Amino acid sequence: MSNMEWINEYMANAERLILENRVDEGVSILHSLLYEEPGYAGLHNHIGWAHLYFRNDCAQAELHFRAAIGFDATFAPPYLHLGTLYNRLGHYTNARDHFERGLACEGANRPALFEGIALTWEMQREFRRAIRFYKEALAASAGPEFNQLNEGISRCRRKRWVLMFF
User: Fold this and answer.
1) pLDDT beyond 60 at 136
2) For residues 150 and 131, what is the distance between their CA atoms, to the nearest angstrom?
3) How much is the pLDDT for 2?
């Protein structure tokens, strides 16, 4: 078993614990793995994921996503998560920048990245641009997110119509 295989097994176990609502146990395992592989981008991404989505600790999430990118700038997931973090904080330009950088990475989740860009435009009331990126996400998609993306387009059209009168 190679070095990365064993650490990936531990990370999968930690992820399972986190998803079972045993967040502290899972995060503890992830943090202990930093002593073994402090420069592993996937590990930092997992830690950032746990902090963002399960602990609501934006500072720690940002720290680990940035570390993941620093250790492997071609690894796509931290760009998606960091963009999501910045969207939540209302830092739309930073969010868009990270989503766009993620699109350049091999194996990127293109529908999710395009959807993130669309959300930045939607939150800035740039509905035509948002619709364009929701359509890009639809074009890149072959999965179950079709309805969600289609709803994004419909929502932007409704907002554009309603806000014309305000």
Assistant:
1) yes
2) 9
3) 60
Residue 51 lies in a domain: no
Does 58 reside within a domain? no
* H helix runs in the chain, sequence order: 3-19, 23-33, 41-53, 58-71, 77-89, 92-103, 110-123, 127-140, 146-163
Q: Find the mean pLDDT for residues 29-51.
A: 97
Confidence of residue 1 (pLDDT cuts 50, 70, 90): very low
> Can you say whether the dihedral through the CA atoms of 143, 145, 146, 147 is positive or negative?
positive
Within a domain: 39: no
96 pLDDT higher than 70: yes
Instruction: Using DSSP, state whether 109 is helix, strand or coil.
Output: coil
Write out the residue range of the structural domain in which residue 138 sits: 111-166
Amino acid 46 reads H
Which amino acid would we find at residue 61?
Answer: A
The amino acid at residue 80 is L
| The CA-based dihedral angle spanning residues 37, 38, 41, 45, taken in that order and rounded to the nearest 10 degrees | 110
If one counts every other C-beta atom within 10 angstroms of the C-beta of residue 107, the result is 9
Residue with tokens 């890009």: 136
The predicted structure's pLDDT at residue 163: 85
User: At what angle are helices 110-123 and 127-140 packed, to 10 degrees?
Assistant: 170
